[in-house]
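User: I need a structural model of Aldo/keto reductase from Pontibacter mangrovi for a docking pre-check later this week. Nothing fancy, just the predicted structure tokens so I can convert them on my end. Input:
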Amino acid sequence: MADNTTVSNPKTFKIGNDLEVKRMGFGAMRITGEGIWGPPKDKDEALRVLKRVVELGINFIDTADSYGPNVSEELIAEALYPYPKNLVIATKGGLTRTGPNVWPINAHPNHLRKALEGSLQRLKLDRIDLYQLHRVDPEVPYEKTLEFLQQVQEEGLVKHIGLSEVDVDQIKKAQEYVKVVSVQNKYSVDFRKWEDELAYCEAQDMAFIPWNPINAGNIGELEPLSRVAQKHEATPYQVALSWLLHKSPNILLIPGTSKVKHLEENVKAASINLTDEDMRELEKLRKEE
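Assistant: Understood. Predicted structure tokens for Aldo/keto reductase:
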């Protein structure tokens, strides 16, 4: 007998227990040029995407100084400043750029200071609501990076602090210095390497923000996704996003796109109600990393 019990899917989450955002957000990486380098091919469409984000009720946008570099943050301000009162803009520092698809790590406090000051200027903000360390730098003592984050939070330049691509031990180390409110790791229905980190974040009431939530190059080969999508009259991409929303109540989604049409399709994923049976079907996609 089929189990059609609908799985819990809360519509909002409070980052740091005080910034309430809708769990379907927007990732502003792909509004830049090819290879996340330089300006977008169609700037007008990129600006339309950002304006449509707000029109659709999305109030969480994730970006980084390295997207472009600088381009994504500049476009966000051009399209949306002055910002709606409830809009939360999260940005990141810790990666530099030397060319298309090239991302050297630099989490030295001197670099992070310049990156943060640049983000504040480009976004026209006095304080970043959520500032995320883009990567732990193997060339810089982690403690030095964490001391910097602690300092800028004390200075009032940053409200909340998050991390990216970290394991549980690294999160716990950071918690000795600051309150960590979010973790952004690669995670999707067919990439589950960070299950322990997701569980830790849920237990700690931290947001878990999956990047690359849709493995577009692989998704057409995932038969369970297609079966569930057909049942809900949706696309496999939409079901992959919906699965994340149903997987854990602390997951915030930031699918990115440079097209208004794709943005609207992504947002529809939030209205898909998956059942226990659907979730068991999709669990078949889990594989060892």
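Before docking, keep this in mind: The chain has a mean pLDDT of 94.
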